[in-house]
Amino acid sequence: MPRTAPARLPGLDGLRAVAVLLVVVYHLFPALPAGLLGVDVFFVISGFLITTLLMREHEEHGRIRLLEFWRRRARRLLPAIGVVVLVSASLAWTIGGDVLVGLGSQLAGAATFAYNWVAVAAGSSYFGGLDSSAPELLRNLWSLAVEEQFYLLWPLLLPLVLRLRRGRVMVAVALAAASALAAVLLVGADPTRVYYGTDTHAFGLLLGVALAFVRPAARERGVPAALGGLAIAAIIALAFVTPGPGAETFPGLLLAASVLTVAAIAAAVRPGSWLGRVLDVAPLRWVGERSFGIYLWHWPLVVLLTVATTRTSPDVAVPLEVAAATLVLTLLAAEVSYRFVEQPVRQLGFRASVRAIGRAFRGGPVRRLAATAAVAAGALVVAGTTAAVADAPTVASSEAVVENGAAALSAGSHRTDHATLPGAALRSDDPALLAECPSANLTDDGGLCTAPDGRPAPPAPARVAGARVTAVGDSVMLASAGGLIDRMPGAQIDAKVSRSMSAGLDIVDGLAARGQLRDYVVVGLGTNGPIDPADLARLKKDVGPARTLVLVTAHAPRDWIPGVNDELRTFADRAPGVTLADWSSAISGHEDLLAGDGIHPGAAGGKRYADAVGDAIDEVENSRARLEYRVELAQWAVGDTFHRAR
C-alpha cells in the first residue's frame, strides 16, 4: 500500500513559536521568570504529534515500521544538532577557559542521546546559582535527550497499547500521573534531578500521547477555539510566575502548563478552528518552522557571547546588548540551518546529500566554490572541537582558586614561624616593622619613642598579630586563605564553600561558648544571600564588648550584593566595636584578579582581600594607640605644667 503524505495539522507551528519564544526570552531577558515552561509545551506537542504519526502509519500498514521512523527522526534531528555542537565547541575553543570545562562529557551526552543523565551524574545545575562554577555550553540539549529517549522507546511500546480496545487514554494518563508523582517525591533543594529526569519529566509527552488517543474519536467535538485561546493566554501568564524550588513548580507549574497545552492543541487542530488559522499566521509559522534551530542555537550563543564580553556565565547575568546580539544571531543561524542543513537532509537523506555535494564539485565555479567552502568548514569545526576537548581544563577557575586556598589553609595551620604571643601586637620594636623616630631616642620600655624632653612621641604604626584574629567566612575567604596567612600568620581561619550567615552564626556561637574567640573576629559571609540585621546584632552579642567585630563587604555579580553591603555599612556605622573591611571597594576595578565566575579571587586577588581585612584590623589597633598617645600626652602636659609651677 503506498504511503500517503501526512496531512499537516493546523496551529502546531504557531504553538511551537510560542514555546520557543518563552524559552528564549527566559534565557536572554529577565522578563519571564518561568519561561522555562516553554519546554513543556514542546513536550506535549512532540508526544501528540509523534503518536499521531505512528498511529496513522499503523492504520495504513498494519504495523509500525521502526527503522523507517527512526530514520526520519535522525534526518530531522541529527544534522542540526551536529552543526550546533561542532560550531559551538570550536568557537568555545577560541575563547578558552571555563567555557571548556566538562565539554568532553557534554559531547558524550549529546552523541548518546543521554545528555540529561550525563549532566545529572556530573552534578550539573540547570538553574545555575552561586555554586555554578562554569558555564555549560550545551545545557539546552537536556530536553532533546528526553525527547530522543521517548522516540526510541515509545514506538516499541505503542503496539502493545494499541492492542487495547479500551483504556488507551487511561494508560497514558496513568503514566503521566506516575511521572508527576515521582517528581513530587524526588524534588529537593536542587530540582535539577527532577527537571532533567526522563522519568520525572515525561508527563508532558504522555499527556500529548493521551490527546493523540482521544482525538480520532473526537474530531468534531474538540475543545472550543475560545477555550484554546484562553489556554494559550494562561500559559503565557504562568511564564510570569516566579518559580520555587519545590513541588509547587516541579512538577506543579510545569504540569499546569502541560494540561493547558493539551487544551490549546485540541482547540487548534479541530477542523475549521479559527484558533488554528490565527496560529498559522506567517510570522508565527516562520518562527515555528525554525523553532528547532532557534532552540538549539540560542543557548550556546548566549554562553559564548556572555563569557567573551563579561567573563562570567549567563547564569549570573546577560547584558542587554549581549541578549539583543544573541537574538539576532540566533535567528540568522536558525535560518541558515533550516535552508542549507535541515531541509536538504530531511528531503534527500544523508547519502543523497553527500552525493549532492560530490556532484557540486563537478559543477560550475560557483557550485565548486560552495562545495569546497562547505567541506572546509566541516573539517575546520571538527578540528576545532577536537582541540577544544583536548584543551579543556579539568576544573573551573573558581574551583581551582578555592582548592588552592584550601591547600594554603591546610599548610598554614602548621606554620610556627611567628614569634608573637596571643594578645600581643607587632609594634615598632619588631625587626620586620622597625620604624625610625626622627629627633627622638628609642627607649627600651616596650618600643615607644620619647623625645629628649620626656614628651611622648606618636606611636609607630602597628600590625596586629594573626594570633589575635579569628576569621569565619565563605568560599571567597577560603580562596583568599593564602593571602590571609601571609598577612596574618597564625590567624584562626574557618572558611567553607556555600556557607551562609546562619551557618557562620552557629560557628561563632560555638567558639564564643568555648571561650575560643580572639581579640578580632572577622566575618565574611555576605556572598551567598541577603543578610538579616537581627543576625548581625546576634553576631555582635556573641563577640561581646571586649572584642572587635570586623565585617567584610561582599563582591559578586548577584542582585542581592548591594543590599548586603548596605546592611553591613549601616550596622558598622551604628554599632560600637564594629568595623568594616571593604573587600568590595578593594576589588572593584580589578575584576581581572577574580576567577571566571567574577566572585572568587586568585592569588593576587587574595592578597587584596587579606590587605582589606588586615588594614581594617590594624586601623582599629592604631586608632586605640593614638587615643592612648593623646591620653599620655595630656598626662605629660599636666605633669609638665605642675613641674614648671613648682
From TrEMBL:
Taxonomic superkingdom: Bacteria
GO molecular function: acyltransferase activity, transferring groups other than amino-acyl groups
This protein's name: Acetyltransferase
GO cellular component: plasma membrane
One GO BP: lipopolysaccharide biosynthetic process
Membrane protein topology class: Multi-pass membrane protein
Ranges of residues in domain Acyltransferase: 10-333
Organism in which the protein naturally occurs: Microbacterium oleivorans
Protein keywords: Acyltransferase, Cell membrane, Membrane, Transferase, Transmembrane, Transmembrane helix
Membrane-spanning intervals of the chain: 12-29, 35-55, 76-95, 169-188, 194-214, 226-244, 250-271, 292-310, 322-341, 369-390
Name of a matching Pfam family: Acyl_transf_3
UniProt-listed Gene3D superfamilies: SGNH hydrolase
Cell compartments where the protein resides: Cell membrane
